[in-house]
Amino acid sequence: MSEQKFKSGFVSIIGRPNVGKSTFLNRVIGQKIAIMSDKPQTTRNKIQGVYTDNDSQVIFIDTPGIHKPKHKLGDFMMKVAQNTLREVDLVLFMMNVEQGFGRGDEFIIERLKETNTPVFLVMNKIDQIHPDELFPLIEQYKELYDFKEIIPISALEGNNVDTLLEQVKRYVPEGPQYYPADQVTDHPERFIISELIREKALHLTREEIPHSIAVAIEAIERREGGNAVYVSATVVVERSSQKGIIIGKQGKMLKEIGKRARVDIENLLGSKVFLELWVKVQKDWRNRSTHLRDFGFRA
Ligand code: GDP
Ligand code: K
Ligand code: MG
Question: Which ligand is nearest to the CA of 40?
């Protein structure tokens, strides 16, 4: 009997905002680790999800959106994304079949051509179109790049995700099990908690808020004697008008953000949570590197 060697590797997920990268990652990992929303640039940092089975381990990296940078945070995100493409064993380039080809895809494909890493085309949201519409799209994308595989899926409903996973495992080299089998992410709880809070703020507010928001965790403490966890966090915005929006009439908005975030944090930690939220104005935080470091952005 020939011995099957353990395989392990790193896979980057890239694509335009909202194509479903985080949804896919969460489905594969089977747990909510990357926040999802219908607003672009929800994911700012690289989030790793670890998939482990009997003979393989795949570490997925949900890469922040590749796009032309407009400010320092944009620069940072681009750098993370480009370095990631070179370091991984495989790239999953995800597109949304509902939208079809766009200029954002063109920009990403130019970046892909600068690396030798194998690339799969993942055509997501097939639950939204008729199968007949898929074929011309496949033909169009084939012309653009020499994809190793082209795989249509629905990250939301789970269609064909197993097939994709099987193909991914074929491209991962022999290697060690980097993480314990029960570990699904290498991000500290602190970061995930701040992301969960930021997600609620994104969901509950409008256009002008999303890009101006950051969440800093001030404290996470297990209170003596009890099995409850106390979390204190500050929502940072750029203008006092935004502070007003986040707080809301008689504090209603902030209360709602806290209520929803607390439910998710309780699920994450598996214990009762007391969440205290503050709001602070910090002008122009996106252009100040020291602040970026404070919020957990690291190159
Ligand atoms: P990301 O910006 O690429 O990480 O995209 P998200 O994972 O945050 O998803 C953006 C939106 O698309 C969310 O509202 C998802 O629920 C939705 N979405 C993701 N995958 C699918 C899918 O397969 N089908 C449909 N119908 N919606 C999806
Ligand atoms: K998104
Ligand atoms: Mg995302």
Answer: 2
Could you identify the atom of ligand 1 that is nearest to the CA of residue 17?
2
Compute mean pLDDT per 10 residues along the chain, 299 residues long, and list them: 77 88 84 51 55 87 59 58 78 94 85 91 97 94 96 96 95 83 64 86 78 81 73 90 92 96 85 92 62 42
CA of 44 to the centre of ligand 2 (A): 10
Residue nearest to atom 24 of ligand 1 (CA): 125
Nearest atom, ligand 1, residue 23 CA: 7
**7-170 carries CATH number 3.40.50.2000:** no
DSSP string of 29-90, one letter each residue: HTS--S---SSTT---S-EEEEEE-SSEEEEEEEPPPP----SHHHHHHHHHHHHHHHHSSE
DSSP at 207:
T
For domain 189-294, give the CATH number. 3.30.300.20
Task: Give 258-289 pLDDT, tens digit per residue.
Answer: 999 999 888 877 778 999 999 999 876 555 54
Inter-CA distances, 134 with 95, 146, 168, Å: 12, 18, 22
Looking at the whole model, is its pTM more than 0.80? no
- Alpha carbon of 18 to ligand 3 centroid (Å): 7
Protein residues whose CB sits closer than 6 Å to any atom of ligand 1: 15, 17-23, 36-38, 42-43, 124-125, 127-128, 154-156
Ordered by start, the domain boundaries in the chain are 7-170, 189-294
